[in-house]
């Protein structure tokens, strides 16, 4: 039985005081709840240490939104896995479509980042998803397969246990246009099939596959009730305690 994981990707939002404000609302709003899911928040790098200390004795875990695959050196503006770990993180988002499109990250870079996260004891939240053009051209599954296979290249079955996959159709991100529960379920089931082929049926059954793309309190329940959807990666709706908590409770 897979346990849902609801993660909030804050993207490039919130300074330290805004971080403190949102986390204090989340911690108090969730403290007496018996949750059916695990909860992760992924604030910007500058807020990670604060987020880790504010969530220390709560049921909320912390992740980063990216890392660089080198250990240290002349890589101006980049952040290493050990820095993220030192800031108290357990998770790191890798391969988000905004990284792929705006910052030109390809499958090879993403694969290196996943490997670096794993070898540093960080759990990657590995994102895949097709653009609208790709969906309309009927090549969604081809794209997803390429991203999954290349992203997981040379990653062992044992290491796969520490990876969360997130299916985020690019056309559904920040657009208010969610994939229908059937569209999302179809791709999630397809991803599980790919994992089964690369690794094994039992690894595929254990893998957590989150859905992301305009998840809101009013559509979360239906999406999360699909057989192969094991949680959500939430953008806009995680920036307000009320809506993020409502999604967590829908799980
Ligand atoms: P929205 O929920 O704002 O569509 O963003 C989804 C996302 O990109 C999460 O990583």
Structure description:
- The chain has 251 residues and is an alpha/beta fold.
- The protein is 43% helix and 16% strand.
- It has a single domain, classed as Aldolase class I (TIM Barrel, Alpha-Beta Barrel), CATH 3.20.20.70.
- The protein contains 12 helices and 8 strands.
- Strands 1-2-3-4-5-6-7-8 form an 8-stranded parallel barrel, surrounded by 6 helices.
- It is globular and about 45 Å long.
- The mean pLDDT is 97.
- The protein binds 1,3-dihydroxyacetonephosphate.
- Residues 9, 96, 168, 173-174, 212-215, 233-237 line the site of 1,3-dihydroxyacetonephosphate (13P).
- Mean pLDDT over the full residue set: 97
Number of helices: 12
**Structural class label:** alpha/beta
Percentage of helical residues? 40-55%
CATH superfamily: Aldolase class I
- What would the CATH topology be? TIM Barrel
What's the number of extended β-strand segments? Answer: 8
Strand content range: 15-25%
Order of helices and strands: EHEHEHEHHEHHHEHHEHEH
The second-level CATH architecture is: Alpha-Beta Barrel
Quickly name the level 1 CATH class.
Alpha Beta
Radius of gyration: 17 Å
Strand order of the largest sheet: 1-2-3-4-5-6-7-8
Largest sheet: 8 strands, parallel, barrel
Small-molecule binders here are: 1,3-dihydroxyacetonephosphate
Briefly, what is this?
Helices cover 43% and strands 16% of the residues. With 251 residues, the chain is of the alpha/beta class. The chain has one domain (4-250): Aldolase class I (TIM Barrel, Alpha-Beta Barrel).
Characteristic terms for this protein:
TIM Barrel, alpha/beta, 251 residues, 16% strand, single chain, eight-stranded parallel barrel, binds 1,3-dihydroxyacetonephosphate
């Amino acid at each position: 039985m897979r346990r849902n994981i609801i993660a909030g990707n804050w993207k490039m939002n919130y300074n330290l005081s805004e971080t403190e404000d949102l986390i204090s609302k989340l911690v108090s709003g969730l403290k007496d709840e018996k949750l059916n899911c695990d909860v992760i928040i992924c604030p910007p790098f500058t807020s990670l240490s604060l987020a880790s200390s504010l969530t220390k004795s709560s049921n909320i875990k912390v992740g980063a939104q990216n890392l660089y695959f080198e250990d240290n050196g002349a890589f101006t503006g980049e952040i290493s896995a050990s820095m993220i770990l030192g800031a108290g993180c357990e998770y790191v988002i890798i391969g988000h479509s905004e990284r792929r499109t705006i910052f030109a990250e390809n499958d090879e870079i993403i694969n290196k980042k996943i490997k670096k996260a794993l070898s540093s004891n960080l759990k990657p939240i590995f994102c895949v998803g097709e653009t609208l053009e790709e969906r309309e051209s009927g090549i969604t599954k081809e794209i997803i397969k390429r991203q999954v296979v290349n992203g997981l290249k040379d990653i062992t079955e044992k290491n796969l246990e520490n990876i969360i996959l997130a299916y985020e159709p690019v056309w559904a991100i920040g657009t208010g246009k969610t994939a229908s529960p059937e569209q999302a379920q179809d791709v999630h089931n397809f991803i599980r099939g790919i994992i089964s082929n690369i690794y094994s049926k039992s690894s595929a059954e254990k893998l957590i596959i989150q859905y992301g793309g305009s998840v809101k309190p009013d559509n979360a329940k239906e999406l999360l009730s699909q057989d192969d959807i094991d949680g959500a990666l939430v953008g806009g709706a995680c920036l307000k305690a009320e809506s993020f908590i409502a999604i967590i409770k829908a799980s």
